[in-house]
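Quick one - first record:
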Amino acid sequence: MESVVADDVVKVGVVVLVGGEVRRAVPVMRRERRMMMVSKAALRSRLLGDREVRAALQNTRTASLLPPVGEEVFRRLTPASLGKIQQHREAEEVELQARRRSKEVTENNQAKPARDLEAGKPLPFFYGNPPPELLNTPLEELDPFYKSQKTFIVLSKDNSIHRFDAEPVWFLLSPFNLLRTVSIQILTSSYPLYVFTAIYTFEAIIKVVSRGFCVGKFTFLRDPWNWLDVVVIITGLLTAFVDLGIVLKTVARVLKIITFIPGLKTTVGALVRSLKGLANVLVLVVPVLSVLALAGMTLFMGYLKSKCVIQWTEVDNVTGSTGINYQESINNPDNHYFLHSQLDALVCGNASDSGRCPEGYICLKVGNNPDYGYTNFDSFGWSLLSVVRLMSHYWENLVQLTLRASGTTYLTFFVLVFFPGCFCIFSLTVAVVATLSSEREEAGFTELKRREEEFAQILEAIKRSEEGEQAACRAALSPEPDGENTESVEAQRSCSPCWFVFADFFLKWNCCGCWRWLKQRLYSFITSPFFNLGVLICLIINIFFMCMEHYPMTELFERTLNEADLVFTLIFTVEMLLKLVAMDPYRYFQVGWNIFDSIIVAVSLLQLTFDTHGLRWFVVMRVFRLARWWPSLHMFMKLIWTSVRTLRNLILVLLIMVFIFSVVGMQLFHQGFNDSVCRISLDCQLPRWHFCDFFHSFLIIIRVLFGEVIQIMWDSMEVSDEITCLIFFSMVLVIGNLLVLNLFLSLLLSSFSSDCLADPEEEEKSKVKMAFRQIHRALGALLGKSTHVNPDHTDNKEVPSKKGDHGTLTSASWWAPTADPEKMSEDDEEKEKKRPPADREDPPEDCCSDKCYRCCPFLDVDTSRGRGRVWSNFRRACLSIVQHTCFESIIIIIIVLSSAAMVFEDVHLQHRQVLKTVVARADQVFTCLFLMEMFLKWLAFGVKKYFSDAWSWIDFLILQVSLVSLAADIFGLSGMGAFQFLRTLRALGLLRVISRIQGLRVVVEALVRTVPSMLDFLLVVLVLWMVFSILGVNLFAGRFNYCFNETSQTMPLPEIVNNKTECLWLSMENDTGLRWKNTKLHYDNVLSSFLPLLQLAAASDNVDIMYSAVDATWVESQPIFEANQYVYLYFICFIISSFFTFNFFIRVIINHLQRDKSAGKMIYRTKEQQKYYKSVQKRLMQQKPVPRPQNCFQARLFDLVTGRPFRVFMVVMVCLNLVTMMVETDQQSDQMEIVLHMLLLAFIFIFVAEFLLKVVALRQHYFTDGWNILDLVVLAYSFLGIVLNDYFEKYFVSPGFFIMLRVVHIFRLLYWAQGIRKLLNALLLSLPVLFHISLLLFILMFTSSIFGMFNFAYVKRGYSIDDMFNFETFGSSMMCLLMITTSTSWDGFLIPVMDTPPDCDADMENPGAAISGNCGSPTVAIVFFVTHIFLTLLLVVHLYIVVILETFESEDGEPLSDDDFQMFYKTWKTFDPEASQFIQYSELSDFCDALPDPLRIPKPSPITLAHMELPLLPGDRIHCSDVVQALVTQVLGDSGKMNSLKARMEEKFMANPPKTSCEPISSPLQGQQEAVAATVIQRAYRKHALQQRGDEEMAVQSVNNGGGGSALQ
């Protein structure tokens, strides 16, 4: 930072800059930042020479870092300096012993190194620049912490600190040794750079000499990887003369690693080539993002500048003056309202549903935008950045700010426009990357298969050649003993003879006969079933004991756990020793599980021997021994191992990328964070996320890869260059996410190999099963039962299901008892329709079961006569009512209305008596209607069939809840806790809609079928999380507690309150409101540890739990800022494991879907949706052609407006119109507004001209195209917007919003690109399924929001729950559920609803409500949040899977349908009115030009028609079938669809054969070739004849000339 606080506040400025004790007073800090500034030199001189400043800073950390006044700052290291260090050490040891005797020393108040003087950091500015002669020279320590330690520092040219030990190196080289001094100078100077540059130059020279420079295919410059060498050499050479920046040098040097590691170049090349496939997605992404950015700019421009400002009268009263400048007053941040510890003022709005200001404040549009001014929609660039932010994990803050400023009504816009648009972009990107990864995997598999075949052929040839030699050798040699054969086999291994000697002597224990007898007995014992079962039981009990550790524990309990740990360690040690003796080390260590067990046992013994708590984390790995007997866990572990081994190159590329960006980020931004930290931090301390060192830079890159980029980018932009930050973070986000996505999908695709699906060792499983079977037999023998089991009998024999089984959700519905509508064939449907109504009605089934009839015979009546007949007819009537389609529609309406009535049961209902009465009466009416429905179905279907269906049970249970709640209201018992909880279950009422909508039921059935696989997966995940939970308990149990001041809402510094004892003592002595608290998410026991792990895995903003862990020190001690920053690695490991578990989760779902598909089941689709799918697939490429008008003028206009150039021109006009809208800003000048308005009028004139041209050319057909209707609506709204602009902007949407809809013309033009067409087709074809899954997601959100409103309406506000986002009303509850559903900061909603006293008041009166208090329920909250998160995650994953599977399966639809052939035949009739099936070949060009697309071949087309090779019939005629087959081949090519289409066409023509002969005589191409040949022959003959005639004439002339000469002579 180039300037600091003014001279009159130097003392305050020094404290602020160097991190003294600073109070978080936001307005005061802002005033200090705006004071007069002075230079660093003035502040440095005051710090080093002013005793008053030293006195003001005597209790701060800065005072200890400064040298005494008048003493030199930098001093050379001398032997005398080492003597002073020894004296300091002795004095410190004496003082420390004295403090220990007085028990004044603790772990927290011990001296620690200064953060500003750590190795690798730049020298703080107040030290100044060292003299040049002291650079790269050993100097005395500046950090007081190292004054008593034998260390010294060296300052490099850029003032970076390097720290060294003063002890002799190798016990020989002291700091004053010449060799070590020279080495230090080389290390801290730039000499190594020149050395490496020379090495790289020598390498490049060798390559150029051996390969050549550029001439030739395999020369030096023809390889792009060699360009890296050129860049490295050039930058290295120029660095000596010009400062090129270190970024270019770093990137090029690190990328050279790729050229040296085998396989990396191939991987990087494949990734680069795969980027070509993303071009189609990029073409779609750009217009979509542009439209969304323009929509945001149109709707929310300038809204986020609205802030809560003190009202003018109050400002006047406070200041006591009347001459106040109003503009200065409202723009002064001191007059704005700030929430606690927030840098930005509270955003507000003036709409009825926007955020409100506190009393005494008014909402005004003043000041800057939030987040340093970067969060806004005021221009196209910032709006585009905000749209990109909506696609990240930090979108909820932007939505909250926008809704608070503009109103909650705009939430529908986010839900219906922004989120679907972002979903389409991301889903299509995932689908394309998945396709590219699949193609890459398939190509690799094909290449591997080819190599295996070649290798098998080579082996077969070698085997055949060696068979003779081996036979001769066997005949010549006598048979050897088995031991010698074994040794000969072992000798063939690639090991030295010494190894076999060592193995025979040390690893094979066969010393005597008694020992061998003991080994045989022990081997029989360890291979027995009960031994394996005993080991498994001991392992499970050991895991149970590990999970029992918690905080706080009594000494007795802790001693019990330690003894149990000792017992289990001995048990597993004995197991290892028994196996070693029985199997010998040679055989024991050949089994991988035995090696794993031995390592765990060795670590356990070390832990017990040396009492080393740090090895505890490794002992927990014993849990993974369960994989030896658990197939799913074994498969998961093998999946991870094989995937990492297979994709090691891709993982290594990702790590290289992370390293490069970490180093580059540190080099680009560390100076900005050091100099300008006060811009982003109230106390001028470095934030948790910065680029000042490599570790923090590495953490930032990891965090960006997980999508949390916005807040870090804002801070970096504030302290550094904005453009540089945007480029850097954009590259990290795009490249990093592309690599992560490739890695994820490659893992997913590679996990389907057969190797990963192999079960664990069958021998181990069979032994455990055998043990259980023997125990079962023994118990049966003791109980006197026969338990003989046929060994040939299989346990998994399937029991045939009964025909009438309705016990699952996937059974047939009871309102269609005849057949499953999805399985009925079309013939059966036709037969069913032809049956008379009397025959179609099935008789009602029996009301009760056979057991009921046997118990109560009077229930069994004869339905053929008398009262029984009347009863039967009555049931038939009820059945006809229930089976009527209108009945289900009415019930759906009633369900929706009853659910809508619950929306009004919010906290305001008690104050609206009329509405309360209406809701109560409506609840009674709906309950009665549902009761009547149940009785009708009982009468129609019978009680037996009604309760045999799972959906009926759901209806019955929900109805019983309503009846009990209604009875409780009648008898005045609704205030009891049990009845209140039952009343909240009425929120499940909307779930009854699922069983009545076929599409929803199919989706639910598909989800239910995955439940068994999901349960197995959940058990695997729970075991993995249990390992991290046990580790978390060992690391953080009791360390998340902290002392908190309830009055000031701050946490006292560790220097004031160090531990729990001091906090409680101060609280009792001074009554300052201090409380010793614990975080809601903690690791005090294993069960509570699962909740923070769920937050880490499923929430995007999961940094709070990390901060608590990083700041944790010791048990019951006050946290210290970043006391142990390397704890981040624990969370990184867990997030990486979550990456694999999520991959495994998707793999389980896709596996199940593939099994359903292979079994012939329809996935997600009903029969109607399947028909829609096929019809849309046929018609995606079809457009009914508009007939060309007969009028000449209209025909020319028709050709103009339907041509591709006109469409392109209009799309260009639309884009230019959008560009003019992009130029608009919030605070633009009047001249700019006039220019933009004139341009808008010009574009409207162009669009009006387009409208008139199209109406004249297309006539009434203009209104049959949806694109034209859209243009007309936009045009009409634009006209009305010009006339009634203010009225529209006030009550409706701005006209500019509808103008943006014209951009869809771009998609109409881009649809003809094959790749884009495939993506759009996949999206269109998946729309019905996406709609039903989205509808199911909405039902789940609606149900959860009602449940949350019933349970958490009165909880105390805090964290994310405020005046707008809460559970008090249905609208605010839906907004909260939207954020929870998208896995954003849902912990901000979970923590307040888990409040219990004393964090809340359980006796607080809620006016008008039967519920008292503002506390929550931890149990209900955890169950509610976990259930909702899991269900929504399942549905969201299925949303993406639908699009991905559709992209894999789509083949652009069928380009030709029956409509195309009908248009072909219709056009043929105009050329063949007599239906002879023949036309003249001369008419073919006109006929092909008259056809509609895609069969049309526009004129002129003689070459195309000639190459179709149509057979010519006598009279130069061509047949209809030949023409259509040639045209279809022209469209489809030689694809597999040709056979089916050819068969269909032959059937049509064989039904109506031609009247004349169809024997061809030639083809047009053959005729043209004959004509060309004849022309060539004629030309050659004419040339030859002319040449021969010329020769004869010359001969005659020569003869004549010769005769004349002789005569003259």
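second record:
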Amino acid sequence: MSRLVDYFVIVGFDHEKERGGLSNGIILQRFPEKNWDDTPFHDGIEWFCQPQGWALSTERSEPRFYVSVLTDVDANRHYCACLCFNETVAITPTKPADEDEESLESTRPVANITHHSIMYAPKCLVIVSRQDYIDTFRNCLGIIYTVWVENLGVPLETLVGNLVGGVLVPPPGGPQVRFSIGAGDRQALQPPAAPPLPVTHTAVHMLLRLLGIHKSVLLWLAVMSEHKVLVVSLAAARLAAACRALAALMYPFRYAHVYIPLLPAGLAEVLATPTPFLIGVHSSLKDDIADLLDVIVADLDVGSLHIPQGVNIPVPEGRLLSSLQAALALVLQPELRSADSAFAPPPPAASPPHMLDKEIRAVFMRTLAKLLQGYRHCLTIIRIHPTPVLTFHKAGFLGARGLASCPFAARLLDSMFFNGVVAERGPPWRPTDIWDELLQNLPEQLRLESLNPELELQHIQDLAMQLHLNENPNPQGVLPQAYAQRVLRPPEGAAGRIHQPPLPTLDAARVQQLLAEHAARNATHKLAAVRAPAPRIIPPGAPPTGAAEHSQLLLTNSARRLEVLSACIAAIFECRYADARKSFPAVLRALRAPAARAALVRDLAARLPTNKHLLQHHQFDLVVRLMNCALQSASALDEHSIAAAILPLATAYCRKLCTGVIQYAYMCIQEHQVWTSQQFWEAAFYQDVQRDIKALYLPSPAHQPRVPSPREDDEYLSLLKAQEPSALEIAAEQMRLWPTLPTEKQRESIASEESTLYSQAIHYANRMVYLLLPLEGAGRRDARDDDRASNSITNSVAESDSADAESGFEEVEPGEAGNNVIKMVSRFVDKVCTEGGVSAEHVRCLHQMIPGVVHMHMETLDAVARESRRLPPVQKARIAWPALVAGEAGAGPALRALLLADGRAPPALPALLPAEGALFLTNYRIIFRGTPLDPYACEQTVVRAFPLCALTREKSVRTQLEHATAEGLQLRAATFQLLRVALDEEVSSEQTEVFRKVLARLRHPQHPTLHFALAPRAAPAPDLAQPKHTTLKGFAKKTLLKTARRAGFKPKPSKRQKYVLPADSRALTSPPLMASHSADTLSLEELELGSGLSALVGEADTAHSRSLERGRERVYARDWTRLGLAAHPFRLTHANALYSLCRSYPAVLAVPAGVADESLRRVARSYRHARLPALTWRHPRTRALLARSSASHHKGVMGMLKSSHQNPGQTQSGTEPTSSLEQERYLAALVACTPSSRGDLDDSSLSLDSLLLCCEDQPHHTPLLTKAQGTLVGTVGRGSGGKGARTWGRWGSLKDRRAPDADLVTRMSTADLDSVSGEGGGSAGGAGGGARRAALYVFIDKGGAMAAPAGAEPVPADYPDARATKHAFKKLLRAAAPSTPDSPEEAGFLRLVEESGWLWQLRQVFQLAGAVVDLLDVQASSVLLSLEDGWDATAQISALAQICLDPYYRTIDGFRILVEKEWLGMGHKFQQRSNLAATPQQGFTPTFLMFLDAVHQIQKQFPLAFEFNEYYLRFVAYHTVSCRFRTFLFDSEAQRIDAGLEERRADAARLGVETDGAGEEEAVRAGGGLFEYIERLHQRAPTFYNLLYTPDLDNPVLRPVSAISSLEVWGYYVSEELAHGAPYEPELWPAETEPRAPRRVVAAGYDSISRCMPDAFTGLLERLRQLELELGHLPQKWKVRWEQLELPNTLELQRNASMCSGVVRRATCAAHRRGTLEVLARARLANAPPHAHAHAPQHRWLPAAAAAPARCDHCSELLWGPLETGVRCVDCGAAVHERCAEPLALPCTKYKAPPPPDRERDRNVANSVASLQASQQYYEQFSSNVAENRTHEGHLYKRGALLKGWKQRWFVLDSIKHQLRYYDAMEDSHCKGFIELSEVITVTQAPPAPGPPKKCDDRSFFDLRTSRRTYNFCASDANAAQEWIEKLQACLQ
């Protein structure tokens, strides 16, 4: 019996500390005044009496009752029941309001207290008890309050004395108690039936009713996984009930963390504790807890559950969670079972709330029982006497149940709750309860429920009834004759009485006297003790089941797999090593399953005759490999106890290295993570201790701890094992007998168990030392350690399984590894010995023994390591070099390696990789050659190779193999190859480093002539040490100098001068004389100019005709002659014969005949790198011209405007006006050479302008075209009348035209001036006639400028620049050749290709090339490509346009001429783009590869139009970066001439006879060209020929579709052939010497499909060749045979154009024309007058899905809701993709444009500031992206103007916008601010400023002075500062 109430306390308001109406509580009285001996009084109870704080109030409130829970240091809960009411008090303020002190930890507003105000102070009656009888406490406090309020005449002292001392409560399971506290009341109290079951009443039902099923389950999971949980509500009763419910739902677990159902406001800092808690707080504190980042908050009033972003609640595996939620729905919503019934039965009667509460608890109990099913089988008992000590084998339970990947189960087993369950319910001899019965019977119940689901609800209701009977043991309590309780309650309104006297002070002596009387009475009248339930043996229940096998190995555990494993082990022990190795791959694959690993351990244990088994070397290696594989497949937790079972085997299997030195298996299996897990060692130790404890008490002596040998009867042993009692059953029996044993026997049992623990601790300390000290660290210590290790010591130590610590070894330093092992073993010994109750003396002995064991084992390892290195190496396969091409040789020794699988491995051939072989390095390639490791899958050879010069990145990697971690290399190539190899263990780090250094040297040679294509040539020596006349170039130079001296030239020792030969010096323009000059000018250091120059020229005139003829014989010159560019009105000029005009241009150029050579030099100064416009193609029908150049040197529109308006009176000095004048003359000459400019072609139907103005025939017009049409029509309409001004004609119209150059005016015609100025009347035809088409369209950079003559129109183009191409290629390379296999979490291949942007860049190139095609073919206008530097995008667009226009370039010869003309002759930076220079660049920029990809896309769309096939393009793409041929080694013709490589073409290939193979190899070895090599191969076989080639002469122009959906990923990027490597080395193809087998397996990714299965034409040609050889005839070439084929009648083969084909052709032309219109429309919008759209509003985009298929207004791609969602402007309705919203050039058209200015103002636009502002706005709107206009960028420190502090920012110098912008970070897109360069006065270097940044140089400071202020900057170093100063000064010039 125990007290119902421990203390009765009266707590009141502390008026002395009152400040501003706030104060603290104070204990007025408490009874008893002295503490009980067994229950001390809790200080600080007044905090919990008023959780919201003690405060006066102006209104009287009703009495309130709530319960707080206090927890003492012993984790015992004390219930604090409070009845709070108000008392009237009179308050006189002691201080004025403004002098009031700060309120006490509260910010609540309190009404001002006036003089003699009537206020109400709180007071509380408190009951403190250890008993959980909340309703009884409420009744007792209510009776006391009623007696006081109603003044019933009963002394309060009597009530308190009777309550505290007179009411005793029996323990759980006791009878009902009836009592009265002396106020005429009658009360009954019923203890619960079972002590551990919680009492909830209806708390659980209330929780689920307020939060719902899902949120309640999540909250329960959070509590079970030890998260911080906070419950919020306005009602304290709800808080207490919710916390009680959550704690009850954990049963059988007990909540062991901070538990405060009602937290006072003054203790809110408790919420910041790092430990888990379950706390309830009032809703008034909700704002104070909003900043808690790791607390889960449940609001009971609104039903919300807030889980912070960083908190992850573990969830059980799917079936367990779903069954829990389904059962809760079935209980709370019983109508679900009949909701779908056709004849619905009457609704079931709803259970009362108290029964629903118990049913919900039953559901949660069943869930936990399902989760912990079989947990008692994983309990490990390590001590029985004097008290049982149990542990739980967590890893074994997770492995047996298959819950290793369940985070909730792992978190629950690691919690304090579970440790408490193990300690409380683990002992096998104790009383049982409902939980034990549920756990025992649940498996059978679940089996029955699977047959009849209706039994589930019935079982839940049965459990609920048991829980209900636990709370209400007396069923007669519900009968009418039940005991009627009488509880006094105050009448309504009693709390609002005005003249209620205060609660009187109780007489403490009277209360103490009553307590003494009750104590005496209770001592004489004792109730009968309650009979405790008897203990019994706890049944273990069903074993844990449910482990699922690996999802990909469903058949691994089949009998066949286990037979293979058993056969392999038998072959090992029977010395049949070949058979064992042959089955090893299958065995290793089978060992991924736990059952196979367990079978391996059992088989190895069965073959162990004694404690030590000596094996031969091959046996030992194979057994160790099997052990490593078994451990590798197991996890670190060792869920299936594989590592624990291998422990005794590892110390038993061994081999003898020499006399006295034995190597055990544990020395070779140390590389696994499981050995470093202390949890594993503890679990294995406890398992072995339990086995020994079981053997200690096992009654049967027949028990054998070791696995029986196979000679014994297996059935008999299994029967004995089944009848053998378990360890828990033995422990239960011993616990039952323990009280009856004599003392001596008890002491003997305790000593035996402790000795068992101690011996196992010694054994495991040795095992840990064995497996934790690494063998590879041994043998590397000093030689004195080896000398000290004598043979006798080695013999005694190495041959023993365990070492004695008292061996007398000399103490040495164990090193860092030894110290770590000592620390870990010591921690292990402390842990297990403390839990096992080992005496302190034994623990001390263990600690003293451990260092000696470590030292002794280190000596053993020294001997083993020394002898293991003397073993003969394992015989490995001989390294055979692969086949090499002509001239290829090895560059170093081969490295034995393993080719690993990567993301590109073919899925159809998973067994090809990994492959074992070697990595070879030659002077041309990196090659891997080997064989797959799995001989069952494939016995082929795996070859993967790529050229050295294609290497993009090389890095070291670490690879996890089967049993170890190996060093490796990862090599990625621009040919889309990836070599990811793991180096063999015999490859040293020094060999790897040498390999990498040789690779780096060969990858970037010091001179281009050292590449493989030119490697046999001697390397050029330095100029000073160059031998005499070693080359033709040197001979020519010496001859020229001698001739000059004879002519009268004298050496001049003055400074070096340069001069350019005059235009009439034609004798020096021949290619032979070109080769004699290494630079573009001649040096006058040895020659002095004089009258003798004419003599020099005269001597050279004799070779003039021959030199000119040889110059015209070049490939591009012959092509220009074919096109008519060598005849009038054009000519082939030799002005660049010495490459003095342009270093990157060819010696011969096609230019207009009216332009002199001297003018060409002046024109070249206006273009970047002097790449002036040169003619490259002429349309055969329209005579339109295609020319190309680099971008103009002009700074930009804003720069011209600022310079012209700021300095109107100044004229430019120098040669700039002359260059601009010559530039306009040159462009005027191009316009004059265009037939359309002279009116030769007056067909208006060809005009794109007319189509732009009259676009009714176009079915799809984007708003961009509509806007362009409106701009054009409006402008023309104003200009057609002769009064308006047309300023949109060209960019040059924005210049200041008040004082034009007089010479320019005199040379321009009236029509040209009209076109330039926009004045004059319109032409015939109305408005449409005024917008005549331009004769020349100049494609310029976006944001660029040009000085264009009449008839020329600039077209700003948006194209992929070199940087964008480089980034796209890098992403495409990673997508096509990934280093790791794809995972479901990562993006797939197609997604990565899309993110790379490669196809989008192809589309941009196609659009520009298509516009060029239409302008030349449809409009008959000439086109000048004046983009970037003139050698990247210009070459792409020009070459693609010519392929589409000219069918000749679609032949093999024509394509070669096109490449040699556009890429080789006109120059392209192959060395920089392909990263071939001596200094490595940052990545590849494959501009030429993108061109080849574009040709491939056209070829796919027009498969009959090309003479060459796709393999031809792949071959060219591969050898572009291979450096096997000299074709793509240099950037220009001048560089090839300087290197001594003259343009030559093998004419022998045209003779129709096959050349000798040796001669071909010699030509290749001498640095031959790629196209010559292709021609030789083409003569032999139709390797590159498209056998379906049928040119369409009626439609020669190709118009490919450029939509993304029509483009595909080129097979060159993703194809691979592992049989012989990359298929682009024909010499390495195997010869067909043997007849082909009639049946052969051809695998994609390994074999070459085209060679293994040739097409019909190729097969027939080969058959003809074989027949000719059989007949003895000389075989004819295939080309001859192909041409001899008789074609049928052409009339029969003539294709009749059907309506379908015509519709398709017209639709394609319309789409092509629409793309051209959009290109021109953007140009017209950019060239429109500023006032036309300067003030256009911006778009307001919102996401919107298209209801029907539509097209994007920017890119014209499909925009459809189900496929792609886009955005739509809410004002004008424009619809675009999200990616197209930013680059959309169309302004918003919701508001009208501002009215045009008057005519006078428009005429004087050059003198108006408003025009400048409008032009600036116009430019800023149509300027390109910021990233495209970054002239210079980098980090700078900028000094603040106000605080003078330095801050680092990212600065961008924009020469186009003429700004210096700065950002907070490099990744930011919005600038922080900018500095207008027009305001900059000077940029100078500055002295160091005060407070500079750290580690800065004194010379890194510079100042930027503007008209407003001076900016102070600091760069990273002096060089960076100087670079910034130079860049800024260059922009200011």
